[in-house]
Design brief:
Helices cover 0% and strands 35% of the residues. The chain has 202 residues and is mostly beta strands. The chain has one domain: UDP N-Acetylglucosamine Acyltransferase, domain 1.
């Protein structure tokens, strides 16, 4: 009821400034192991869904999940999203077999996707019957920034403070403070370079 007079989507954000979490009535939570901490914001159209043998989904304090984010878990897969991380609309977290561990203060642009598992490709087996396996899941460390449409694949760690350019496909580890771009993603620079210092200043 508190949000009835507020605009939709981002307009509901003031509701978490009271210290309470906000889960939109239009969010669909079908997960018995979904937990969240104070000041979390879960927008309309968000789907949190579990299949058999699922692990947990946990949102730390001040996490924002914006419209139409989907989190799916199954086959012991789990998701943790660290405090003050913002996930923009239409992102997909498919935690099967492996885990997805997102650090604190991470910025995730719209349409990003995370897949901590792989399919077999044996030509003698139909695609729907292929086994799935993991190489260790996905880790995104604190204060990383993923641009629009980034895809992160199984077995990858994105280091603290790294920046991944829009549209990149990340299939290998990215070092701390690196700037990576392309398909597959390659390191093209470092935020530690002198040229980036003071770049946001007038």
């Amino acid at each position: 009821m508190a949000g009835l007079g507020l605009p939709p989507a981002y307009g509901k954000l003031p509701l978490v400034q009271t210290g309470y979490a906000y889960l939109s009535p239009q969010a669909r939570i079908a997960h018995n192991q979904f937990t969240f901490e104070p000041r979390c914001f879960v927008s309309s159209g968000v789907l949190v869904y579990e299949e058999p043998d699922s692990g947990t989904v946990h949102l730390e304090a001040d996490v924002h999940l914006h419209e139409f984010v989907t989190i799916q878990t199954g086959h012991e897969g789990s998701v943790r999203i660290g405090e003050r991380t913002h996930v923009q609309p239409r992102c997909q977290f498919s935690a099967y077999r492996g885990s997805i561990d997102i650090g604190a203060r991470v910025e995730i642009a719209p349409n990003c996707a995370f897949y901590p598992y792989n399919h077999g490709m044996d030509a003698s087996i139909g695609m729907q019957q292929q086994p799935t396996y993991t190489r260790g899941g996905i880790v995104i460390e604190d204060e990383a920034w993923l641009g629009f449409g980034v895809i992160v694949l199984d077995g990858v760690k994105v280091g603290r403070g790294a920046v991944i350019a829009a549209g990149a496909v990340v299939n290998t580890d990215i070092p701390e403070f690196a700037i990576a771009a392309g398909v597959p993603a390659k390191v093209v620079g470092s935020r530690l370079d002198e040229k980036w210092r003071g770049s946001a200043q007038a």
